[in-house]
Amino acid sequence: MRTANRRSGGRSAGVKTGGRAAPRQETTADRIKDYILGEGLQPGDLLPTEAELCEHLGVSRSNVREAVRQLTTLDIVEVRHGHGTFVGNMSLDALVESLVFRGVLVPGDDLRALREVIDLRLTLDLAMAERIVDAFRGTTNPELHALVKEMVAKATGGSPFPDEDRAFHTGLLARLDNSLVGQLVGAFWDVHTAVVPKLGVSVAVDLERTARAHGDMLEAAEAGDPERFRLAVTTHYEPIKRSLDERAN
Amino acid sequence: MRTANRRSGGRSAGVKTGGRAAPRQETTADRIKDYILGEGLQPGDLLPTEAELCEHLGVSRSNVREAVRQLTTLDIVEVRHGHGTFVGNMSLDALVESLVFRGVLVPGDDLRALREVIDLRLTLDLAMAERIVDAFRGTTNPELHALVKEMVAKATGGSPFPDEDRAFHTGLLARLDNSLVGQLVGAFWDVHTAVVPKLGVSVAVDLERTARAHGDMLEAAEAGDPERFRLAVTTHYEPIKRSLDERAN
């Protein structure tokens, strides 16, 4: 985080973050960000062409091209080949990419990085319990029940169910009034599922138990029972936590 | 998150994330990541020169250069000018940059993005209460008390205290057995403090109250009292939350 200050510039270059106030030069990427802000553009809006940006900002083509690539990596802009360059969705993809790589890079230490990701997922799910239960109390959710049914069917047949699993968690959090929480949990889900196979951690055991725990979470939420919801969340993470414990020994 | 799959490749290109299994071409950035993994390099280790990477990977200089820039944005590699290119720390800087920009970009909607960041900080601080209190129970922490004293002194003089504030929160979380939580809270702290001045939200009011709440958090942790800790955390966020509510009206 020490370098956040250098990179997170924008409208006011002197913003202090991370305890440092390093004066910095405004980069071409900063100026494209300023342009987006100045024009009031929103995600999905079309940006000027490369040539137009060169002229507008008074910088070289290669400068603009590099800045666009950098902003693409951060999902601040999105290049759709043949269609143009657009304001991006500022998703958490960059977070996922860094964390996946870190998770794979430093596996020696008892899979610490993966443990931390799973611990954080569990923490957030438990912390959100009351709010999720409040949002679901007394509702019926056939689409989420269908996902649970599909997960249980796959688990019974010995197959994993990552797509249904992710859709279930996303669907649960979509009702919260905080979209960042849902995105963050989704990002950690992606890290978790991308790292697990690369590390050769077995999660085949207890597939069925994990699948059914989703059903318990949903029923507890619909019944308005936060305590039961938290219990189901904990059960849901038990197989992967046990698998990690076994690997550590 | 839809595109996480395309970008989060590495050792096994077929990893499924985000519910998609799009086959993808391995990019030069992926191959540099594979090189880092294959050689067992760790953060801070020196990478081969640009020329050596070109030869090793059989790609052009401009390809390598672009890939290095992309990986730099993600803090997967770090270029130290005049010294070489090193494996980076995989910090959450990219997350901060995207979120800061999003926070500034979409302020119309009752400062929703900033509200979400603050809500998430509060949620994580509360969720970690038991663990922080467990780590601090019965300890004495002169360096953290000194930070509180400095914050109160600055607040009394009408000055903000971002450096001490961040150091305090980082110090509190540094004792946890999950370094990712500390990094994430630090990242959200950076987003928060970078976005607030850009949006012109006043936080000058209640500076002193915020400063003193840090002291209450620390004393509650040392006294081993999670309930009192949670109360102090809630008090700590009240001024900024009230300021946001006033802006919304």
From TrEMBL, chains A, B:
Record-annotated HTH gntR-type domain positions: 22-90
Highest rank taxon of the organism: Bacteria
Protein name in UniProt: FadR family transcriptional regulator
Region described as Disordered: 1-25
InterPro entries the UniProt entry points to: GntR_C, TF_FadR/GntR_C, Tscrpt_reg_HTH_GntR, WH-like_DNA-bd_sf, WH_DNA-bd_sf
Keywords of the record: DNA-binding, Transcription, Transcription regulation
